[in-house]
Amino acid sequence: MSRFALLGHPLGHSLSPVIHHAAYDALGLAHRYELLDCPDRPAVETALLRLERGEYAGYNVTVPHKQLALSLADIADPLARQAGAANVLALQAGKVHAFNTDILALLSELGDVGRGAAVILGNGGAALGAATALAELGFERVYVCARRHTGPPEGWRGSDTFRDLDVTLLEWRPGAWQSFVSDVTLVLQATSAGMLGAGPGESVSDIVPWQELPANCVAYDVVYNPEETPFLARARDRKLDARGGLGMLVGQAAAALELWLDVDAPRAAMLDAARQALGARHG
């Protein structure tokens, strides 16, 4: 029996234990998956010591520690290094390895989207992973727009990493998309806004010029709980293809499980468990 866990703060909304335990059951394994609330850097460092001592066999990492997780690892997978963020940690040959399976999940989730211009809302670890995925998919132009960026982009957090990914940084203001909005085929909401237990989502969805987006634009929200966020509601009002983050959640979890255990993840069982858990929470 091995132990795995999710590191982050807060964690009360997480479906990760449900998803991973469904996988263990389907595979006939007796492993355990836990939540390790880590409110600050010292808590994350302590968790890594427990991984190195063998108390845990692997970690998922969620907000706000994806960039910190990468910096504390001994070895980074190329995709995680490129993104500047990690959501999976594993102990291999005595070294902590960092991976980014968010990217792998998004490659699958967005494979059918037109390769025009894309706008990412947010500038944290999820946004960095999304920018890397969109570069891999070959979008013509990728922009990042974040709530704290109301002035010139010089000195913005993570700006150098985004520029290395050939991403254009946008100010958070009405009209900033005007010159390219008709070419946008994807708007990707990569913050916790609208998530159960986090801040309201209206402040993020209100910046999007919904009426000016083309009809073939896809609106993707990485938030999965609740299934309907203010961002997705606005997209559906505009009759756009609106997609929540449950598929990404299950996809990144399946890829993490495959890294840890060298097995084929039972993705259908994991997705079914996630949907049932969400349904039970929301009646």
Spatial order of the strands forming the largest sheet = 2-1-3-5-6-4
What oligomeric state best describes the polypeptide chains here? Answer: single chain
CATH topology of the largest domain: Rossmann fold
Largest sheet: 6 strands, mixed
Stretches where pLDDT is under 50 for at least 5 consecutive residues are none
The tally of beta strands, per DSSP, is 12
CATH-wise, what's the superfamily of the largest domain?
A: NAD(P)-binding Rossmann-like Domain
- Secondary-structure element sequence? EHEHEHEHEEHEHEHEEHEHEHH
The helix content, as a percent range, equals 25-40%
Averaged pLDDT: 94
Give the CATH level 1 class of the largest domain.
Answer: Alpha Beta
Given the C-alpha coordinates, what overall shape results?
globular
Overall domain count: 2
Distance between the termini: 34 Å
How would you sum up this structure, described in words?
- The protein is an alpha/beta fold.
- It folds into two domains: 3-99 and 247-281, Rossmann fold (3-Layer(aba) Sandwich), CATH 3.40.50; 104-244, Rossmann fold (3-Layer(aba) Sandwich).
- It is built from eleven helices and twelve strands.
- The strands form two sheets. A six-stranded mixed β-sheet has the order 2-1-3-5-6-4, sandwiched between helices.
- Helix 6 (125-137) links the parallel strand 7 (117-121) and strand 8 (141-145).
- Helix 1 crosses helix 10 (246-261), helix 1 (16-27) crosses helix 11 (267-281) and helix 5 packs across helix 10 (246-261).
